[in-house]
Amino acid sequence: MDSSNTSNNTNNAVPADYIQGTILTLAVILGVLGNIPVIVSIGQQRRLLKNNHYYLILHLAICDLFFLLFFTPSIYSIFTANPSKTFLCRIWLPTHTMFFTAGANFLVLISLCRYRAIVHPLKPAVSGKALKALSTFVYVLAIICVVPQMLVLRFDEAFGCYEEWTMESLNITYTIFLTSVQYSIPVVFLSIMYFTICRKLLTHNNKLRLMNAQIGQGNTRRLTLFQRLTFRNAKTFYVSFIIVICFVVSACPAQ
Q1: Is the per-residue pLDDT at 136 higher than 60?
Q2: Cβ contacts of residue 80 below 8 Å, gap of 6+?
Q3: Whose CA, among 39, 84, 195, 199, lies 20 to 30 Å from 67?
Q4: pLDDT (tens digit, 9 = 90+) per residue, 142-192?
Q5: Which residues of 65-101 are buried (b: 16+ CB within 10 A; e: fewer)?
Q6: Any idea what the CATH number is for the domain that residue 85 is in?
């Protein structure tokens, strides 16, 4: 996410601003309506929290929800063409960035757990204690990432919310660092993890096809089992591919 956040100081929003604001408002509403049921559902079924996948999904949904909620002041500024106030500038913008960063890295943790379960199924799953430690690290890292932004953010009635760096080189360095932590590194990691997972699934499917050919039509029960395994592998393959593409496409404009 670009570390330079400025606001329009025009008096009236133009039609293009209304279109942009409407699209963003719909995205926020749909995102909130999608994440709240996930949080409530997992929260009500405490046993699901013992499952690593659901535990990480819960934290990802929480990050997405707050990321969307803390984006609403920006939408308000688009509609009204008024700059954000001091409080929104110094608190809301960094918090919005923090939850975006945390959400991106929770996607990385989810891919790591899937990699371990599919590529190394005989190895023990990540322990609950280790997973909580990793989750804490994700949040701490996200907070650390926005501290420099909070220190340099300034508010002016004429120019709105802006960053005031003592040296341009520091601005460039911080922007590169933030982009790497919340986008570049997660994209590379997700691509490697899911590529390895997909390659493992394709190899497994090829073995299943050979076994199907050897079994023939005689053993219907085993044949049906192999077909289900093949379908499950294909489903996992497509889901993995969609996750990477959606993150790359949706997060790229924010950088």
Answers
A1: yes
A2: 13
A3: 195
A4: 999 999 999 998 887 777 778 889 999 999 999 999 999 999 999 999 999
A5: bbbbbbbbbbbebbeeebbbeeebbbebbbbbbbbbb
A6: 1.20.1070.10
Q: Does a structural domain hold residue 110?
A: yes
Q: Cβ distance 202 to 192 under 8 Å?
A: no
Rounded to 5 degrees, what angle do the CA atoms 174, 1, 92 make? 95
Domain count, the chain: 1
Structural domain contains residue 12: no
List 156's β-bridge partners, or say none: 160
Percent of the chain past pLDDT 70, that is, above it, reads 75
Alpha helix stretches (DSSP H) within the chain: 15-44, 52-69, 72-80, 86-87, 93-119, 128-152, 168-179, 185-215, 220-251
Has residue 9 been placed in a domain? Answer: no
CA–CA separation, 134 vs 115, rounded Å? 16
**Distance of alpha carbon 43 from the chain centroid:** 20
**pTM higher than the cut 0.85:** no
